[in-house]
Amino acid sequence: MVKFLQFTLIRAVMSVVTLLIVSLVVFSLMELVPGNCAERYIAFKNTQGQVITIEDIQAEERRLGLDKPFMIRAGTWAGNVFFKGEFGDSCILRLNINHLLSDKVWISLGICLAALFLSYLIAIPIGIYSATTRNPVANNSVRFISYLGLALPSFLLALMIMLTTTVLFGESMAGLFSKEYRDAAWSVAKFMNFMSRAWLPIFILGWAATAFALQTIRALMLDEIGKLYVTAATARGISGRTLLWRYPARHSLGPVINSLGFDLNRIFNDLPVVALIMTLTEMGALLIDALAFSNDQQLAGAILVILTACIVLVNFITDIILALMDPRVRLGLIG
Amino acid sequence: MAFLSRLNPTVTDQTIKEAYFTASQAQLVRARFKSNRAAVVAGWVLTLMILIGFFSEFFSPYAPTMAGRDKQYENGPPQIPKFWDENGFSLQPFIYGTKRERSIKTNFRWVITVDREDRRFVRFFVKDWEYSYIDWKWDLPGENFDANLKALTFNTHLFGVDKGGVHLFGTDASGKDIYSRTLRAIFTSLKCGALGVFIAFVLALIIGGISGYYGGWIDSTLQMITDAIRTVPPLPLFMALAAFLPQEWSAEAVFFVISSILGLIGWPTLARRIRTHLLSERSQEYVLAAELCGASSSHIIRRHLLPSFTSYIIVDLMITFPYMVRLETALSFIGLGLIDPVSSLGSLMQNVSKADILLNYQWYFIPVLFFIAFVLAFVFVGDGLRDAADPYSDVKK
C-alpha cells in the first residue's frame, strides 16, 4: 500500500512537471505574437477617436504588468492557471476566458471522450475477431478499413455525411443544437436535442481513433495468441470465447489502457477540423477562430493548455489503473 | 536468387536452404518485402506518384498558377478525350470545343456549352510554356548581389490541344487547370513531407542519441521534455505555430517554415525510439571494445551504434511521412498553412467544404482521391517495410 501511494505520488509529480513544461512552451508561443495586450487596448481607444502616445502604451503596459521580465510573467500566468484555474482575459474579445470557455470545454470534452469510448467499443470486438478468424475476406476487409481510417481524412468523411444528410433529410446536420435551443439554458429537452446531433461529430472523431485502436488490438492479440500459455490453456481443454477472454485478451489489455492517452491526443487533433466543417460552437471552433482569424493569443494558449491538461490527466489515471492491475508496473518505476 | 520465391527455411531443397542462410540482411529484407503483394503494389503506385510529381511540369499541359488559367473555361467540368462518338471514329483522341455565353436565356450567368461538332484533337509532346528544373533566386541585400540561376529549361509537355484548352479534371473558379494543380500538389506535399521528416530526423537523432548514449540525469531530463511535447496534440500546436507567420511572407518562405514546423513537432516519437535502442545497445560488448580501443563517443555513436539500427530508422521515417503530409493537409485545409495560389493537396481541398461546390462542382473532389491514394500507398509501403525489416516476422505467423 505504501509502495502504491509512493507510485501515485511520483506519477502525480511527473504529471505536474509535464504540465509546467507545456505551459512554459505555450506561454513562450503566446509571446511570439507581434503586439501585446497594451497595444491592443490602446489601439482600440485610438479607433474611438482618442489621440494616443507612446507614454499611454507604456502606462498601460505597467498597469497590465507587461513591463516585468519574461520569466516573472510566465510564472504568474502559470501560477494563475495552476492554482486558481484562471486564464485571464482575452484582449481581442475583452472577455474573461474562463467565462467564455466554461460550457464549451465540457461539451468538447464530452464529445471527445464519447468518441474515444465509441472507438474502443467498435475496435475491441472487431480487433479480436480479426486476429482470431481464419476467414481471409473478413481479415483483409478489416485491414483495409483500418488503413482507410488512417488515409481518409476525417474532414472528408464529415463532408460526405453532411452532404448525404442534407440531401436525404433536407435539414443540415451542422451545429450542435437546433435554432430554438442554441441560447436556451440546459434542460432535458436541450440535452436530447444535443444528443440527436452530437452523434455525428462523435462518430467522425471516433473514426480515425477506431482505425488506430483496431490495428493495435489486432497486433497485440496476434502476438499473445501465439504464446505458450495459450497453447497450455488449450491443452487443458479451454476453448472458444472463454479461452480468448480469460487469457490473451486480458494480457493485451495493459498496452491498450496505456495507449488511451495518445488516442485522446489523436482525437483532439481532429477536433478543430471537424468543428470547422460541422460549424460546431465548441472549443475546437474557438481555437480556429483564435488562431486563424483574430490572432487571439490568450484564448489559443488557454485552449492548448486545457487540451494538454486533459491528456496528462488521462495518462495519470491510466498509469494508476495499470499499476493497480499489474504489479510489475508498480515496481518498475520505484525500482 | 532462387530463394526469393520461397522463404521458409524448412524447404527440402538444399540450395535454397543455403541461399537463405547465406543471404545478406538487405537481400532478406528485399525478399520479405516482395512476398507482401499489397506492399509491392503500393510501392509501384508510390514510385509512379513520385515520378509524376517530380516531372509534374512535363505531364501537365498548363501552369498550375494563375499564369496557366483559362479565362474561357472557369468552373468547367472535366473533359475526357474520346476516340469515338456519333460523328465517327478518330485514331487521334479528341475533346469538344466549348463556348461560354451569358444572355437573358441563361439568366445572365456564365454558362458553358459543349459543341459536339467542334472536335479538338489532343496532340502529344507539344511545345508550350517554359519550365526550369533549376530555378534559384537569391535576393540578398544590396542590388548587385541578386543572383538568378536558371538551367535545364524545357518547354515540352506530354499533351495539349491546338486551340482552346484541355482540362482532364476540369477547372476551378479562376480557370486554373485542376489536373495540373493536382500533379503540382503531389510534388509540393512530397517536398513538404520530406523536409519535415528530414528536420524531425536530425533533431531526433541528436536528442535521442545524446539521451540514449549518456543515460543518467541527462536522459531523464531530456525524456521529460520529450514526453511533455508529445502530450500536446500536434494539430492545435501546429496551428498555434503557423498562426504567427506574418501574412506578407512569400509563398516559398511560408512553405519552408511550415515544413520546418512539421519537423519541430514530429521529432519526439522518433527520438524516443532511437533512445530506447541506444540504451539497450550501449551495454553490448562491441561498444565496450571500441571504448577500450580509445574511440571517442561521437565515433562510437556514428560508426557503431547508428548502423546497428539503420533499417529501423528508415522504416520509421517511411511511417512518419504520411502523418506529416496529413498534418500539412489539415492545416492548409483550415486555412493556416499553404493557401490558394500555392498548389498543395491541402490547399486544393480547401474549397471542397463549400456547399455550392459539393452540389455543383464535384470535380473539385478529384485531388482528394489522389490524396487518399498517396497516403494509403505510403502507409502500405511503410507497413511492408516494417514487417520486412523485422527478422522475426516470419516466425510469428
* Overall pLDDT confidence of chain B: 77
**Biggest interface in this structure?**
A-B, 52 and 41 residues
Cα distance spanning the termini of chain B: 23 Å
- Show unreliable segments of chain A: none
Largest sheet of chain A: 2 strands, antiparallel
The helix content of chain A is over 70%
pLDDT below 50 for ≥5 consecutive residues: which ranges of chain B? 1-6
Radius of gyration of chain A: 25 Å
Number of strands of chain B: 4
The tally of helices of chain A reads 15
What does the model show?
- The complex is a heterodimer of chains A (335) and B (397).
- In chain A, 79% of the residues lie in helices and 1% in strands.
- Chain A has 15 helices and two strands.
- In chain A, strands 1-2 form a two-stranded antiparallel sheet.
- In chain A, strand 1 and strand 2 form a beta hairpin.
- In chain A, helix 13 packs across helix 14.
- The radius of gyration of chain A is 25 Å and the shape is globular.
- By secondary structure, chain B is of the alpha+beta class.
- Chain B contains 15 helices and four strands.
- In chain B, strand 1 and strand 2 form a beta hairpin.
- In chain B, helix 5 runs antiparallel to helix 6, helix 6 packs across helix 8 and helix 8 runs antiparallel to helix 11.
- At the A-B interface, helix 1, helix 6, helix 7, helix 12 and helix 13 of A face helix 6, helix 7, helix 11, helix 13 and helix 14 of B.
